[in-house]
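Deliverable D4.2, example record:
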Amino acid sequence: MSVAVTACSNRLRKPASVFLFLSSLLLIAPSLADAEEGSVSLPMRDRLTVEPYAGTTFAVGGTVLREFSEVLTQSANVGGVPFSTALGFEVRERDFSDVFETPQEIGVQLNYGVSDLSELFGGVSYMRAAGKSFDALLFTFTGTLGGVPVAVGSTLFGEFEDYQEFAANAGFRRFLDLDSGFHPFVGASIGARKVSAIDLNFRHSSNGVVIDDVGFYKPSLAYMVGLQAGFRYDVSDAIALGVSTGVNYRSQLRQDDSEVSGFREFHNGNNDGDIIDIPVSVRLTAKF
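Output generated by the structure prediction step:
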């Protein structure tokens, strides 16, 4: 149940990267676009548009770590480190935002106009979030951890490795024509996700015990469904900018208990891994 954080140079952590990404799109989009007259912010019947985007999500529900408590009746083991008999602890429930930094996401979609106000879309995306330190276990009965005494009230901190998700999605949007360059829309989507394995690193608050690379979730294939709302605004005959938000449900991940033994409740801490989130993205739409 522990996570090793990857090198900072590999993280998409800075908001500036989103603006650099969108700025580069503004420079290259005219070369991809058709110079025909018309509103690119609305679907074009039997025509394709390309829509790269960048943004983030804000978790509002779901469970990454379940709440439980336990007093050991036998010796147990996590990642090769023994927990002594009679050692007791409790674990609070944690959602995605409790244990991960705010994610960053980039993606691209192809849109196909089925009418002057409706379109189908499909695309791919990549999302990453760095793990952050949190109180994983609060010890409620004394014992030993790795042969080192543990005091009541001390804490075993945890930090997950980076959350990484590759996804493919498809969906439908319906637009409102306001006889202007500003066009709101609503939509729905469904997708498949490939989430990398997630490990958890532990360190005790005072006695120096460290437990690294404990499996928490296995590599997982899961699904997501979502509702969308947003708008596009024409900035030229070939390019539109837009903003999209909504709500997504990302389904459960596969638990990994391979490095945990001797517990009654510890195995149930990772039975979920689902996320309810609100995505926010900035988008550029261009004609082929």
